[in-house]
Automatic annotation (TrEMBL), chain A:
<dbReference type="GO" id="GO:0005666">
    <property type="term" value="C:RNA polymerase III complex"/>
</dbReference>
<dbReference type="Pfam" id="PF08221">
    <property type="entry name" value="HTH_9"/>
</dbReference>
<dbReference type="Pfam" id="PF22536">
    <property type="entry name" value="WHD_POLR3C"/>
</dbReference>
<dbReference type="InterPro" id="IPR055207">
    <property type="entry name" value="POLR3C_WHD"/>
</dbReference>
<comment type="subunit">
    <text>Component of the RNA polymerase III (Pol III) complex consisting of 17 subunits.</text>
</comment>
<dbReference type="Pfam" id="PF05645">
    <property type="entry name" value="RNA_pol_Rpc82"/>
</dbReference>
<feature type="domain" description="RNA polymerase III Rpc82 C -terminal">
    <location>
        <begin position="191"/>
        <end position="334"/>
    </location>
</feature>
From TrEMBL, chain B:
<dbReference type="GO" id="GO:0005666">
    <property type="term" value="C:RNA polymerase III complex"/>
</dbReference>
<dbReference type="InterPro" id="IPR016049">
    <property type="entry name" value="RNA_pol_Rpc34-like"/>
</dbReference>
<comment type="similarity">
    <text>Belongs to the eukaryotic RPC34/RPC39 RNA polymerase subunit family.</text>
</comment>
<keyword id="KW-0539">Nucleus</keyword>
<dbReference type="GO" id="GO:0006383">
    <property type="term" value="P:transcription by RNA polymerase III"/>
</dbReference>
<comment type="function">
    <text>DNA-dependent RNA polymerase catalyzes the transcription of DNA into RNA using the four ribonucleoside triphosphates as substrates. Specific peripheric component of RNA polymerase III which synthesizes small RNAs, such as 5S rRNA and tRNAs.</text>
</comment>
<dbReference type="InterPro" id="IPR036390">
    <property type="entry name" value="WH_DNA-bd_sf"/>
</dbReference>
From TrEMBL, chain C:
<comment type="subunit">
    <text>Component of the RNA polymerase III (Pol III) complex.</text>
</comment>
<feature type="region of interest" description="Disordered">
    <location>
        <begin position="116"/>
        <end position="222"/>
    </location>
</feature>
<dbReference type="GO" id="GO:0006383">
    <property type="term" value="P:transcription by RNA polymerase III"/>
</dbReference>
<dbReference type="GO" id="GO:0005666">
    <property type="term" value="C:RNA polymerase III complex"/>
</dbReference>
<dbReference type="Pfam" id="PF11705">
    <property type="entry name" value="RNA_pol_3_Rpc31"/>
</dbReference>
<comment type="function">
    <text>DNA-dependent RNA polymerase catalyzes the transcription of DNA into RNA using the four ribonucleoside triphosphates as substrates. Specific peripheric component of RNA polymerase III which synthesizes small RNAs, such as 5S rRNA and tRNAs.</text>
</comment>
<feature type="compositionally biased region" description="Acidic residues">
    <location>
        <begin position="209"/>
        <end position="222"/>
    </location>
</feature>
């Protein structure tokens, strides 16, 4: 794991969950599985805080625990899970575009809570929706629970949310380790009625209510009547977000927008349909999707975008002949190639902005020709030789291109050696990924600094706003004005600037998250041919 | 021939010698292709072979005629009178050098190669000769486009070859990048226009639309020639290299269409495209273009907290 | 030193090329040493703004807000104040959130639980104890005394956890392991119940249990 990745994780943890959790989390990342005592010792913090932090981390699906051979429970953290936090807004937005507002709120709830029972999540969503309805004063009747429950089932069917893995218990019934699910399908079992009933752990009052059935089970041992996590052999009744599925969506989305750029909008719709169909059929980690037949695609097109068979056929032809190998004639999409093409495109845009269009030209020459000598590059790209050489060397210095030597003579004299330039995509991707991590961490640091510098002003503004909103009830426009005046014009300007800067920084974070995603997708697709369905 | 022949020759009158020479020259002028020994014999039957030989030799040495071989026969050709005067007074070395350069024709020859071929070991002498020839305007030096330090020599009146000057992209051995860029831009515009036209003509037919938005190198060439931007005549090959640069710019893509016509070979066709993804998020932050990012740490001298690039960027 | 061309030089000193400046660009008027932030060759693009991104930015801010407020945001505990101020009771610290959340111990390893509560458990007076427990009353009262002593010597609430662990271990040695486990189990579930005022009302040790903020308001009720 790289240093820069860790730094980014640290920043994310600090921002989301505070310093204490960050320290504990980082200690877990730096070392592999560690038992509790070791963690306390390493972080030099108090046991109580460490435990609290661990609880938070486990709840948020960042840390898992297993029992090792000596009987101690060891905790290990996952950096990728932390990095997902960078993409939370993407997930929520995706849910919204796919399934609407209710889905959005459900996903948001699950993301914030880490894991939760469906009942809890549904209740909160209903509450939020009704609240906002009331606030906006619309006449739409209150949203019922059932509506939200349906939405939840839809989300489960789409595999966007899933059950959490259950825990193993030892002979005394104590929790010792998290289960590795043998059958991933169980995680996507539709929610049952009792899934909605349980509301454990999040609120005290609710906890009290649910404690009664818990106790009952304990005292009347063996009674599996109440809905505890234990009784499900299909998985616990806690649910969490399935980020893998969201990642597939992002990848599909990137492919679709690429297709739109190459051909046109309609073609992208066709692509979208194809991808949706293949979602259900393909093993998620396969580089190539399942075969789809023409009629299948035709029938699956959404109603408003239906087109004649002829046109459809033509689009498919276009896709298969054109799109850099995204689609083949048989009707399958090649994800590996698609991801590779997207990654290459990203890298090219980076080079374009960093070195200029001339450098881009040379880079593409190198990509196309694999091993080239310097003169050939310059010749093919038809650029002024001096400038071309300089750019080439600059790119080499920053590791975008690599040099291989092939000596003609055994003495490896420079004059008698061939120097070939080439591009090693994997290496460049990794290098850029590191840069992205660094950039993301930097942006976050900068934003925090910005906020902390202007904390006084921001607090003031908050107080003023709070006072104004409380005053609203009692009119008195002059009072309002007076208080508004407390914030001077220059302060207002400053605040506006801070707000703008903050927005810019946040936007960059989001965009960086997207770039990180594409680069990671490419690297993962080359490195891991088969993966078990993970969180 | 043995010595007695020479003695015999001396007994002959000089007139005969001169006659033979004049006759030979006359014959050569009549037959620019060259005359064989037999022809001379027929023309001056009274001279015997020795006389002829001497006459021929003298003419050769004075460079009035030159000796050529055609198959197994020897031909005597009249030499260019200018060349005669040119080389007059030149010594053999110069002649040799000149000959070598001439042989190199329009590709020219490098000094080192001249030295090797002429077996002249002394560089100074060679240079002097070259300078002499240059001042006599017999040869000229042309800068090679590959290595600007290299000079190749060729006959004065010859046009240097493509490989030396680099073709239309080079003028005076300077790479004309602007010219290339202009052509590049024009070609791109043309392709874009074609795509636009295609979308107007076939709004509903994606396949046809796609097909018509392709253009071959020929089409582009014609368009450019019509525009008249280029002073030099461009060939299809040149056009293809320009289009290749467009591909390398990521602005066009190459495909092959088998032309249904007679030749049946696949033709290269080009189409304007857009990049697959939007500009990456990395270069939308200063960190993406920062030259000192490798030295950037949170609490160091160069850190995101104090980064002036970020400051500028946020202030827009 | 690469020469005099460094900060001000025209012409191509090696340094300038290494710093990525273009030729002919105006150099910053810095004397020596070379600028820490050389002028950028290419400026970064301004970040794109479209409605989607704006929405996501707003989402981000909301998320951050809710995460901060969430019980998962672990804050440093209240530092011991010299004087307990009246206003502390009304200060809305994020600690409140942290305290309110209790993980579902069915899914979490037991060792992560707060051992400090064993102290309560050891004190024994539970309204819903099984009959069997009553037999242990003598043991328990001994423990009670022991622990009260421990309490009195306690100054810093933060040490509470450690001290409790120590005493608890001592307690463990005295008791039967089986019983311990049993009680532990019961305690695990009953713990939440026992945080109610009923239990704590019995044991009002003036200093309060440090960060049991939620119990503070139990104080005055009896």
């Amino acid at each position: 794991m790289s240093r820069l990745k860790f730094e980014l994780c640290e920043q994310l943890l600090k921002e989301c969950y505070g310093d204490i959790v960050a320290t504990v989390g980082m200690s877990l990342l730096h070392n592999k599985a560690t038992p509790l005592a070791m963690i306390i010792h390493r972080t030099k913090m108090e046991a109580k805080q460490v435990k609290q932090a661990l609880c938070s981390l486990i709840q948020q699906n960042i840390v898992t625990f297993h029992q090792n051979n000596s009987g101690l429970i060891e905790y290990s953290g996952s950096a990728d899970a932390i990095l997902c936090r960078l993409r939370f807004p993407h997930y929520i937005h995706c849910a919204k575009t796919l399934f609407g507002d209710a889905a959005e709120l459900l996903v948001e709830e699950l993301l914030v809570q880490g894991r939760s029972t469906l009942g809890d999540a549904v209740n909160k969503t209903v509450y939020k929706l009704n609240e906002s309805l009331a606030a906006s004063g619309s006449s739409i009747p209150e949203i019922s629970q059932n509506l939200i429950k349906d939405k939840a089932s839809i989300l489960v069917k789409a595999r966007l949310i899933r059950r959490c893995e259950d825990v193993c218990r030892d002979k005394d019934g104590k929790v010792i380790s998290m289960n590795v699910t043998f059958n991933p399908e169980l995680l996507f079992d539709s929610p049952r009625e009792h899934d909605y009933e349980r509301t454990a752990g999040s609120k005290r009052s609710a906890a009290e209510i649910s404690e009664v059935p818990l106790k009952k089970v304990k005292l009347e041992t063996g009674d599996a009547a109440s809905s505890l996590g234990k009784q499900n052999d299909t998985g616990s009744s806690y649910w969490c977000v399935n980020v893998h599925q969201f990642h597939h969506h992002f990848r599909d989305q990137a492919i679709i927008s690429a297709v739109a750029k190459i051909i046109d909008q309609k073609a992208s719709e066709v692509m979208r349909t194809m991808l949706r169909l293949s979602e259900t059929k393909t093993v998620p980690t396969d580089p190539i999707s399942a075969h789809l037949s023409f009629t299948e695609i035709c029938t699956a097109m959404p109603k408003d975008k239906i087109m004649t068979n002829n046109v459809m056929d033509q689009y498919l032809k276009c896709l298969s002949e054109n799109c850099c190998g995204f689609v083949t004639r048989i009707g399958e999409s090649d994800f590996f190639k698609a991801v590779e093409a997207l990654c290459i495109s990203e890298i090219e845009t980076i080079i374009l902005e960093r070195f200029g269009s001339k450098a881009l030209r040379m880079y593409r020459v190198l990509l196309a020709e694999k091993q080239v000598e310097q003169e050939q590059v310059v010749e093919k790209s038809m650029l002024p030789p001096k400038e071309a050489k300089e750019l080439l060397y600059r790119m080499f210095a920053e590791n975008f291109v690599t040099l291989t030597e092939l000596s003609k003579a055994p003495d490896h004299a420079p004059a008698r050696t061939f120097y070939f330039f080439n591009v090693n995509l994997l290496q460049v991707s990794r290098m850029l990924l590191e840069k992205c991590y660094k950039a993301a961490a930097n942006v976050m640091v900068r934003r925090q600094k910005c906020i902390s510098e202007n904390k006084r002003l921001l607090d003031k503004q908050e107080r003023v706003d709070a006072i104004i909103s409380s005053l609203d009830v009692e009119s008195a426009a002059e009072q309002k004005e007076e208080i508004e005046q407390m914030v001077t014009l220059s302060e207002r300007k400053q605040l506006k600037k801070v707000g703008e800067a903050s927005k810019v920084l946040e936007t960059s974070e989001l965009l960086l998250g997207h770039t990180i995603f594409i680069l990671e997708a490419f690297i993962n697709s080359t490195v891991r041919p088969v993966t078990v369905l993970k969180k | 021939m043995a010595a007695p022949i020479a003695i015999v020759k001396q007994e002959l009158s000089e007139d005969t010698d001169i006659d033979i020479e004049a006759k030979i020259i006359e014959l050569c002028t009549l037959t620019p292709k060259g005359i064989t020994d037999d022809v001379i014999k027929a023309a001056v039957p009274q001279c015997d072979i020795q006389q002829r030989v001497i006459a021929v030799n003298r003419l050769l040495s004075t460079n009035h005629i030159e000796l050529m071989k055609s198959g197994a026969k020897l031909l005597y050709k009249l030499k260019d009178p200018d060349a005669v005067s040119q080389i007059k007074g030149a010594d053999t070395e110069e002649k040799v050098v000149f000959q070598i350069i001439k042989d190199a024709q329009n590709k020219g020859i490098w000094t080192r190669d001249i030295r090797i071929k002429s077996n002249l070991k002394n560089i100074q002498v060679l240079n002097k000769i070259l300078k002499n020839l240059e001042s006599k305007k017999l040869i000229k030096a042309v800068k090679s486009v590959n290595a600007s330090k290299k000079k190749v020599y060729m006959l004065y009146n010859l046009e240097p070859d493509q490989s030396v000057t680099g073709g239309p992209w080079y003028s005076a051995s300077e790479f004309e990048s602007e010219f290339v860029e202009i052509l590049n831009a024009q070609a791109h515009k043309f392709l874009q226009q074609k795509a636009l036209d295609a979308s107007i003509v076939y709004p509903e037919d994606p396949w046809k639309r796609l097909q018509t938005s392709y253009a071959s190198a020929d089409n582009v060439l014609q368009h450019i020639t019509n525009l008249g931007i280029s002073k030099v005549n461009l060939s299809v090959k040149h056009m293809e290299s320009i289009l290749d640069t467009l591909i390398y710019d990521g602005k066009a893509e190459l495909s092959a269409r088998t032309s249904g016509s007679s030749d049946g070979e696949s033709m290269k066709i080009y189409r304007a495209v857009q990049p697959l993804t939007d500009t990456s998020g990395l270069v939308k932050t200063p960190c993406g273009v920062c030259p000192v990012i490798s030295r950037c740490t949170v609490d160091g001298l160069i850190s995101p907290k104090t980064c002036i690039y970020m400051k500028d960027w946020l202030d827009f | 030193m690469a020469g005099r061309g460094r900060g001000r030089g025209r012409g191509l000193s090696i340094n300038i090329e290494a710093l990525g400046l273009g030729r002919g660009e105006v150099l910053p008027s810095v004397a020596q040493p070379p600028p820490l932030y050389p002028p950028l060759f290419f400026r970064p693009l301004p970040p794109a703004r479209n409605s989607d991104l704006d929405y996501m930015v707003a989402l981000r801010q909301e998320l951050r807000f809710s995460l901060h407020k969430s019980p998962y945001y672990v804050n440093a505990p209240h530092k011991a104040k010299d004087i307990e101020r009246y206003s502390d009771k009304y200060m809305l610290g994020a600690n409140d959130g942290a305290q309110k959340w209790e993980p579902d111990w069915n899914m979490f390893p037991a060792e992560l639980q707060e051992k400090r509560k064993r102290k309560l458990k050891a004190t024994g007076a539970k309204p819903n104890l099984k009959a069997a427990r009553q037999t242990k009353a003598p043991d328990v009262s001994q423990l009670l005394e022991k622990l009260e002593k421990v309490d009195e010597s306690r100054e810093n609430p933060d040490d509470e956890g450690n001290e409790n662990e120590e005493t608890e271990e001592g307690v463990k040695k005295e008791k039967n392991e089986d019983e311990d486990d049993e009680e532990e189990e019961e305690y695990d579930e009953e713990d939440l119940e026992e945080e109610t005022d009923y239990n704590l009302a019995y044991f009002d040790n003036g200093e309060g249990y440090g960060d049991d903020d939620e119990d503070d308001d139990e104080g005055p009720t009896y």
